Structures are given as structure tokens and as C-alpha cells.
User: Which sequence fits this backbone?
């Protein structure tokens, strides 16, 4: 039974989860959870690296994220859901890993470089933010994860972890496996409803799993389509048309999709009609999730208990790893 | 009883302690220990920042340093002696503090800058080394230390801690006191026996508290004096003469010292005679320490028990602080 490979995954609790998370990771987790020993981390310590001045936001979203997990069908009986800050062993390991990475190497990390630019930190970047790949290496290895599901843009983080693991194994004792990235089959991200590449809370272009039926419809009706498609009879363009991009992802009837696209391209199919079609599909997917979410969010004590138990389990595993680390580093004095 | 001010102090376990430590800090600790709530940390985590490839050295010197402490009269009944790596709460706090300091600020720290230059790290400086002032801030504040005995060269470290404390108190809740530096009365450092400014293991110019009587004598006889004082009848120079520098520190009979200096300066007093005088004084000081050290080092189990108890006490205090930190940062979920 203990031959299941270990997965580490998770989310920053900076807001409720959206359709981008659903497509990019949540669906995949539901699929994987019975075949893998899956650890799902609510990454509050990582969220605090760029939200340290706003602890209320992070705290509030712990339960929101947990509701989303349970609502989509992540099963706490098989997946271990836990809160990062309640595993102090991760911080302990992070401090030792900081010795195995140069500042120059962290400054070269492409993912972090991009984020520093996007967030406009410039030379005010904090040590916590620059070092978060080291903290991630600790997250992954403290649970001996074999696999880390990531988007292609996060591959440098896994490379950094592998470098640290090699260095640790080489200097001390070879106690860690080199984790591997698990890039999901579904290609790429779901764009925002405004057509921007990334769906995100800060861009205000996200559809949340917790959105009401009316909000969902309103957002779909406001979606970016083909700006030159003015009259119904005009031919429309599919490329860059967000509504069709969503239909491609969510409509499983591929013949119907092909027909719809052809009709739109030759003219005579209005945006409102296409959007209504998308609305039907998304309502059907999100309605049961929304209902489940209501059930869970009406009982925060039960969900807190789930997090408590997951965190206890995770902590036990982390403590076992830290015992090995202390022995390998010869700091197991008594 | 709980109104005693709290001191945090300690040493990196990278070698047994020497006469420089004795003059610069150990004597002071023995004096202060009944009037203050003194915490003495064997800083193995900090030692690993620039000895991470040599864990054996750090491990071996934990007990060596403890023997030195006990030999000079540090009383574990009143001073709490503990091992840094066994207080994971320090790492936990360090990770949160990393968010409160910019990389640029750490790179400007004059003490760290000097050390990076001295150790020749250049652009290969590790994140662990650059960030060790943040780890020190955690060491100090996790015990709520009011006072930190430091040499003048370490003042920037206390400034860094005060900055972090102010930022934490301001963003979260004002739970920390701003620690103050406690610069010892005895001015400056004891030079090495070769006349170099710093006594250190790597320079091979140190007199250890654990040196045998013969080794002590041999080292004194090899000390740097006045290179132009060739014949006994020649006038000698006091300035820059290491033997007289030591006599100034250790000979409490100031009239005799003045007389000796005058004789040396006018000529007719040989270096060997002056060195023999210093040897008499140092043997008298170090002999009882050496004997005590032998007693303790013949019973490592007893000393380990002292460290175990001190570490337990320290950990309880650190855990209390971390409870406050978690509450202030709103990450006290359950």
C-alpha cells in the first residue's frame, strides 16, 4: 500500500479559487487522488511573502480555499489537506536549505525574476520573496514528494528544488528523492474573461467556483469576443475569442463545437447566442460544485476539523523527515 | 523575581574558546549571571551558515564550548545554556522575519559586508549567510531579550534587529521589546599572540582555555614583542608589544606594571623575563579553569544533561513567544 507515489501541490490562500484553478489543477487533483498519496498545502507562509502587510486577507481565505477543495471533490480521506504555517518543520528545513543556495542563483530564477517585475518590487524585494523557492524546496522535500504538478512557467522552481536536493544528498546523506515536475495534460491556462492571458483576482477578470448563477451569467455575457463582429450576419473570428476558447475547454461535444465555430465564421451567429451556450455548459458544471460549497461553508467547524486532521498527519510526516535531516546533518544531539 | 532583565548571548561552536572570548565575553557573563536572566546560545545554526560543508566540526565543538562555559564559572542553575538548532521556533520566526527585510538592506549591513570580504565569498555568498542577521533577530526576540552584549563591530546586527522589531510591532501587534546593545566595559579585543588584531583559530594565533600548562608557556614564549629589541640592554618599545598588551589586561598590580614598562623602555629588561612574568599571571588564571574543564570533560553525560535541561527551558520560552507571534500574525487557526 505504501508504494503510491507522493504528490505535493497546493495554493496560496489569497482569494477563493476560480475556473482557472479548476481547469489547471483542481480537476487533475480529483482524478489523481486515489492513485497517489496526495498532499495539498494551503500555502499561507508563501502567501505572506507578498502579503505580509495584510494578514487578514490570508487568514480569511484559508477556509475559502478549503471549501473550494471539498466542493470540487477533493476527498480528505485520501488527500491530506494541511496549512503550511502549522508545519514549523518546513521553516526549520528552509533555514538549513538557505545555506545550499547562493543569492546570485536566486536572483537568476526566471519565475521569481518575472514576478518581481510584475509586482513592481524592483530593488525593494524582500528576502522572504527572493528566497521563496527555497521555502518551496522545503515544502516538497519535507514530504518526500516524488511529483509536483506545475505549469510550464513553474519548472524553474522544480529545478531549484532538485539542485538543493542534490547538494544536500551530496554534502550530508542521500536521504531525499529528486522530485519531478508533473505538467498537466490540459495545455496551458484559461484566460481571463477579458481575454487577458491570466485569470486573476487582481485583474478582476475571474469566474469563481463560488460565484452565484447570476454572477456567472453576467460574467459570461461580458466576455471578450471578436470586437469586429458587430452585426449578427457578419462573419466572426474564433482566434482570440475568449468565449470560443472557453467552449473548447468545457464543451465535450466536439462535433457541436466544430459546427458552432463554422456557423460563427461564416456569419449569422450572434455573440449572445454563443455566450448563452457557454452559460448552459458552465452552469451545469458549476451548479453541483456551488451546492457542495454551500453545504461545506455552512459548517466551518467541520471543515476546520478536516484541516486540523490533515495538518496533524502532515506534521507527523514532516517530523519524521526532520529526524532524518538532523541525523544526516549531525545535529541530532539528544 | 521576574523583573530581571533578559540577556541573550552565545558563541558559534566552531572551536574551543580562547582567551579572547574570556576577556571579551565569558568573564562578563559570569559577573552578570546573577543579576540578569541570562540565555547563552551555542549557535550551531549560525555556525553552519559558513560551515555547512563541515557538520562534523560543528557537532564536535558543541561539547567543547559547553566545557569552556562551565569551566569559567557559568552556572547552569542561573544561566540557561542551550543549543540553537534544537529550538525550531527560531527558524519559524526567521522565515516570517525574512518578509520584513529587503535584500538590499541585508547587502548594506556593514558587519556582513566585512565578513563576506574577509571570507572571500564574493558573489558566491549563500542566502543563509546573507540572511544570518535575520536569524539573529529571531534568536534575540524569541527570548524577548532586553540586552545583547556585543562588541562595537556587532552594533549593526542589533540595529537590524531593532528595525525588524519596529516593523513587526507596527504591522502586526506590538509584542516585542526593542533590544539594546550592551557594549562591555573592557575596551576592545585581545590581539593574537602574533600581534594580529584578532585572536582566532583560523589564524592559529590563539591561547585556548583548554591549553595545557606547557602549551600555554610555549605560546607565551613565542609571542610578538618589539622586533628591534635585540639585546637585553637595548631600550624596548611598549606600543604594539603584544606581551605588554596582555600584561595590561591581566596583571591587576598596576604599579608593578608601570615599573616593568619603565624598565623595559630604558633598557636592561629582556623579553624572556617579561614573558615569564606574563606566564606566571596567566597560569594562575588559567590553571583553575583548566582543572574545572578536566572535571567536566571527563563526564560528557552530565554536561549533555545540562544542555538538555537548558534547551528544554529555552524551548518553552520560545514556544510562548511563537504563540504570541501566531496570534499577532493571525495564523493561530487552531
Assistant:
Amino acid at each position: 500500500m505504501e508504494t503510491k507515489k507522493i504528490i505535493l501541490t497546493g495554493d496560496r490562500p489569497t482569494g477563493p479559487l476560480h475556473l482557472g484553478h479548476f481547469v489547471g489543477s483542481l480537476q487533475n487533483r480529483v482524478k489523481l487522488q486515489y492513485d497517489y498519496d496526495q498532499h495539498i498545502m494551503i500555502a499561507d507562509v508563501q502567501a505572506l511573502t507578498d502579503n505580509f502587510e495584510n494578514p487578514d486577507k490570508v487568514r480569511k481565505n484559508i477556509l475559502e480555499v478549503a471549501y473550494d477543495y471539498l466542493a470540487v471533490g477533493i476527498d480528505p480521506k485520501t488527500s491530506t489537506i494541511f496549512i503550511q504555517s502549522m508545519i514549523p518543520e518546513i521553516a526549520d528545513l528552509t533555514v538549513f536549505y538557505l545555506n545550499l543556495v547562493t543569492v546570485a542563483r536566486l536572483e537568476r530564477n526566471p519565475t521569481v525574476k518575472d514576478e518581481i517585475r510584475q509586482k513592481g518590487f524592483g530593488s525593494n524585494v524582500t528576502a522572504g520573496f527572493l528566497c521563496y523557492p527555497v521555502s518551496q524546496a522545503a515544502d516538497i522535500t519535507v514530504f518526500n514528494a516524488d511529483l509536483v504538478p506545475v505549469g510550464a512557467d513553474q519548472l524553474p522552481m522544480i529545478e531549484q528544488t532538485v539542485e538543493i536536493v542534490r547538494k544536500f544528498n551530496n554534502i550530508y546523506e542521500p536521504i531525499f528523492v529528486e522530485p519531478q515536475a508533473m505538467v498537466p495534460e490540459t495545455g496551458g491556462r484559461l484566460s481571463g474573461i477579458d481575454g487577458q492571458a491570466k485569470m486573476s483576482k487582481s485583474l478582476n477578470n475571474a469566474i469563481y467556483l463560488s460565484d452565484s448563477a447570476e454572477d456567472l451569467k453576467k460574467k459570461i455575457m461580458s466576455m471578450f469576443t471578436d470586437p469586429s463582429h458587430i452585426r449578427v450576419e457578419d462573419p466572426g473570428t474564433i482566434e482570440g475569442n475568449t468565449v470560443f476558447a472557453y467552449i473548447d475547454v468545457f464543451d465535450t461535444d466536439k462535433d457541436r463545437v466544430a459546427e458552432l465555430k463554422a456557423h460563427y465564421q461564416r456569419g449569422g451567429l450572434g455573440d449572445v447566442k454563443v455566450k448563452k451556450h457557454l452559460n448552459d455548459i458552465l452552469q451545469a458544471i458549476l451548479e453541483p460544485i456551488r451546492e457542495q460549497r454551500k453545504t461545506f461553508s455552512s459548517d466551518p467547524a467541520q471543515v476546520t476539523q478536516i484541516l486540523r486532521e490533515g495538518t496533524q498527519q502532515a506534521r507527523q510526516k514532516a517530523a519524521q523527515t526532520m529526524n532524518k535531516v538532523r541525523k544526516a546533518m549531525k545535529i541530532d544531539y539528544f
About this structure: The first helix of chain A runs from residue 19 to 32.
